[in-house]
Amino acid sequence: MLVSGCASFRPALDQQALLGGTRIPTTEQTIEGVTLSIEEFATPPKSKLAFDSEVASSGVVPLLIRIENKTSSNLKIPSEAVKVYIENQPLSRLTGAKAATEAATREYVGKAVGWTVLAGPFAILAWPGTIIGSAIHTRNVNSRIIQHFETLEFTGSIARPNQPVGGLVYYQIPADTKLLQNIAETKAIQNLRVELTATGEQEAQSVRFDVPLPSLNLLPPAN
């Protein structure tokens, strides 16, 4: 009864579905034989698919990037080569573990007590075993959440000819700015753009992208 009543982490999209190259991007740009595709996962429906949680409500903006190199040279793309802005304000990069902690694992914090209450009179008989079992379950779920975020994270790569690379990058909207207040009021992320620089073996071969994204509606879908 305890296990069946506990919360779980069940994202609908796994690593293969997200990174397999079959996704339809939100936007893409091609420069000199190099294509940058970007898919947002901040809007509630897509966030739920990828993370089983609405991460934007915690100020986290996840973007799936994919680089396809059709040139004859290798292109180096370190993680710091990806920069994200909202209304020309730079956002801070989050590691996969930090993004998970900020946006997803918090939903499970403190639920050990909640699950015990839901167990009704059986909780009294099982005390403190119910609390211990719930706490262990919470830690296990949180560990899986962090692993999921980290597995999908883009940590830098070399884009070789005809070998696409990509992953999710996570950025945080500063909590102490008018920017977050404006997003809360409009229920949308507007003027979001991504800068990415792919560095070639020679400086002249470097490619710089500056890609705007459409407005992202943060309202939950109507039932």
Q: Nutshell version of this structure?
A:
This protein has 223 residues and is α+β, with helices and mostly antiparallel strands. It contains eight helices and 13 strands.
**Gyration radius, rounded:** 20 Å
Structural class: alpha+beta
How helical, in percent, are the residues?
Answer: 25-40%
Q: What oligomeric state best describes the polypeptide chains here? A: single chain
Structure explained in plain terms:
The protein is α+β, with helices and mostly antiparallel strands and 223 residues long. The chain has one domain (2-217). It contains eight helices and 13 strands. The strands form three sheets. Strands 4, 5, 6, 8, 11 and 12 form a six-stranded antiparallel beta sheet that branches. Strand 11 and strand 12 (207-212) form a beta hairpin.
Task: Note the topology.
Elements: H1 2-5, H2 15-19, E1 27-31, E2 34-40, H3 44-51, E3 60-69, E4 75-78, E5 82-86, E6 89-90, E7 92-94, H4 96-103, H5 111-118, H6 121-126, H7 129-152, E8 156-159, E9 165-172, H8 178-186, E10 188-189, E11 192-200, E12 207-212, E13 216-217
Antiparallel strand pairs: 1-2, 2-3, 3-9, 4-8, 4-11, 5-6, 5-11, 7-9, 10-13, 11-12
Helix pairs in contact: 4-7, 5-7
